[in-house]
Design goal:
- Helix content is 54%, strand content 3%.
- The chain folds into two domains: 63 residues, no CATH class; 102 residues, no CATH class.
- Helix 1 packs parallel to helix 3, helix 2 crosses helix 3 and helix 4 runs parallel beside helix 7.
- The chain is mainly α.
- Helix 8 links the parallel strand 1 and strand 2.
Length: 200
Amino acid sequence: MARNLSSKQITSLAVIAQKAWRQAGFALDFASVDDFRHATCFDATGKESFRKLEQADFVPAWNAFATLAGVPPRPDRTPDAQAKAVRILEIHLHRHELTVGYVAALVRDKFNITRGTSATVAELCATLSASQVWQLVYTVNNRGRSKTRKVAATCGAGDVPEPHTAITLPPGGLAEHFGAVLVEPQPVMPKRKLKTAATS
């Protein structure tokens, strides 16, 4: 679910819209600053009111007013769904100790896209949609768990719990199903310097 803009963001849009009105709004054919603001916002985002805008709409709306005000545009650093999925894929690859070459083989087999094995995970997933990256996340997770179970069975260790922090712990019944256990990070103790005997 997308979040609406914060009060601070709405205030920022109102300020830049006022600057744009003073700079270029009079030259345009609008009866009032409100008409100008609604029309410019609608052209940039498809929504007239600042209160209806979502987080992904903030930078395009701000840049539309900034262009008219003569202010340099803001870079859009809003993470999209695909970028979030790629980051989660990287986390799961690291957790299961799988390589980027493994993901390259998955991308080649599942989606018929061939890239070099020296590419990064983000480069491998650049042309994939968010749902396709999530398919890779599920595949990596399932195969990583299978690999862990096989290694544990060969060593005679039985069921090996899956360590998680508070952020990565699956909810409720899923935690029990996967054998997930919460591992509290241990505080790092400062190292003490050893006293050495002075030589004379």
